[in-house]
Design brief:
mainly alpha; 0% strand
């Protein structure tokens, strides 16, 4: 089932992100989509609309140093999100 709430959509990307990291999968396209969605979430935008409008071409011309910075921020955001969700769900972290 595909989630439609912002929290549900973000949870899907959170699971996918940690799966990629844990399995050491090289999926740059999915990683960039995850970055885009999390940035939209942090901006308070509708994730269902953001996901349907996503086009990987938005990354064309973004400097490598900018991508490195944003990916580091994504990693920290996901770490914080996991801790937050674990606390919500009553799981130790």
């Amino acid at each position: 089932m595909v989630e439609t709430s912002d929290d549900g959509i973000l949870a899907e990307y959170m699971v996918s992100y940690w799966s990629m990291k844990h399995e050491k999968l090289d999926r740059p396209t999915k990683l960039l989509e995850t970055l885009y969605i999390t940035e939209r979430y942090q901006a308070g935008e509708n994730l269902r609309e953001a996901r349907s409008a996503y086009d990987h071409a938005i990354w064309n011309g973004v400097p490598v140093s900018e991508m490195d910075r944003r990916l580091a921020e994504l990693d920290q955001f996901m770490r914080d999100l996991v801790r937050e969700r674990a606390a919500q769900w009553g799981q130790p972290h």
